[in-house]
Amino acid sequence: MRxxxxxxxxxxxxxxxxxxxxxxxxxxxERIKGRVRRxxxxxxxxxxxxxxEYAQHAGSFKTRGMFNQILAAGPIPPAGVVVxxxxxxxxxxxxxxxxxxxxxxxxxxxxxxxxxxxxxxKLGARVTQVGAEYAEAAAASAVHxxxxxxxxxxxxxxxxxxxxxxxxxLELLDDLGFDTVLVAVGGGGLAxxxxxxxxxxxxxxxxxxxxxxxxxxxxxxxxxxxxxxxxGVAADSLGARRIGLLPYQIMVLTGMASLLVxxxxxxxxxxxxxxxxxxxxxxxxxxxxxxLTSGAxxxxxxxxxxxxxxxxxxxxxxxA
Amino acid sequence: MRxxxxxxxxxxxxxxxxxxxxxxxxxxxERIKGRVRRxxxxxxxxxxxxxxEYAQHAGSFKTRGMFNQILAAGPIPPAGVVVxxxxxxxxxxxxxxxxxxxxxxxxxxxxxxxxxxxxxxKLGARVTQVGAEYAEAAAASAVHxxxxxxxxxxxxxxxxxxxxxxxxxLELLDDLGFDTVLVAVGGGGLAxxxxxxxxxxxxxxxxxxxxxxxxxxxxxxxxxxxxxxxxGVAADSLGARRIGLLPYQIMVLTGMASLLVxxxxxxxxxxxxxxxxxxxxxxxxxxxxxxLTSGAxxxxxxxxxxxxxxxxxxxxxxxA
Lengths: 320, 320
What we know:
Order of helices and strands of chain A: HEEHEHEHEHEHEHEHHHEHHE
Radius of gyration of chain A: 18 Å
Oligomer: homodimer
Largest interface: A-B, 23 and 23 residues
CATH architecture of the largest domain in chain A: 3-Layer(aba) Sandwich
Structural class of chain A: alpha/beta
Shape of chain A: globular
């Protein structure tokens, strides 16, 4: 028994080809080599391992995806790149563009906190604040891309993004032998990338979602990506309204399960990462660990479980 | 050229035997095996590596030394162990004693912050608050050991402590090939242990001290351990009044240099660890990195430098 909520038979691989193949992820790895950090692995306990991906440039795994999304797109237009995100995607895009010497325009709502806007500016991005809500900023960013010819970067629903994030899965294979990896799901770009990278391996990729941001569960229940209500402590990083279509298709084909954790369990898991390991992560990232600490995922005896600690763009002040 | 401030010829080894031999450190490694975490290594930049020892049990390297100090002492007296420290040594002693099922008594001054006292209690230690100053608590702890027969644990000036901390040096050898390791110095128990572990290797161990806690520099200038004025941002972890005699002797025999960094450089280095790597450490630990960021230590081209990030018993609130 490998935990109650797993739907995939090991080693079989998906029955039809995935939209993102292992070769696509290998190509991404080649493309972003030397531009991203190889992040460390901590043996956190017997058969439990943390992948410390929050130490990635710009504080999250999205830097892998953004580099790949930009580099896979071919020649970069003179207008550079554009993204709509005041969070991890925006930071990763701004960082990657800066390193590549490409102009980056980041659209955020007028309500975006000044500290986030300042961070993006520090990374060299031009920040445009438009509209009262995220949707308005996103719409404006699409118009901007259309008008200027800038390369539009998606935060998760893009083949380059998924393949780039998937390089984390290949790195894990090189780090250790393991049975299961727990991944937080929001838009789904990370979990799908890791699932694609590991599709031909006898490894179990489990998606973990806050009860308050159940994009995968909502899609699985409806049979297709649908808008779900999002909120709670992890909404800043996992608050996509619906799961990306491409990530969802990969998840379905690889039989990924959705495991739900509640907000108190997430807060407790984040606190325990600090108390027991002096690790600071976002609430969204802590959701993956909450699957273990809350008992939502119960590994079998000797099952080797990796928890992807994928982002730390968070305020550490509340851990004081 | 390997940085201006190094006094040792590589590969020669000390000219007379050290008080702590490599074999002593190997014996310590065997003794504490399975009780301490093997901590990860992060490739932080070209030829720069961080050893993430702050993720050790109880938040610092001292857990290595405390386990070894207790286990090397032979049968543990019924009264258990006693230590005087509200900081890393106290936490490490309380943790190790707790895991070994041994009573631990921790003496701290009446002025110790309630949060520290609570942490020690949570680890299962009995906390006694005595006197207005540290020296009074320390004196009371010695009387307690005398009266009860409890094993007195020293925070740094003890062969078991030095050898136990030195296991970090052996772990580094197993982690990677490197030329230089930067270590923060307070009482000297870590730097001496690492120097002892690496004594027969062509590796440069550099001690880094806050200008405001210059225990090694003071001793080197005076030709023997002497009291020095201590204060500033790193005093909570590096604020020993004088360097331990045993650590000092090892440092002299291995030709360890003292590199001084000022408080603003330490604060800046700690901030950069958070901004660039999402790593939270104590100010004392950040001192080691400050040697690089301030330019106090300038590696030669291609020189592989490890920074020991050795403790994170800190309030992350000021990084918000």
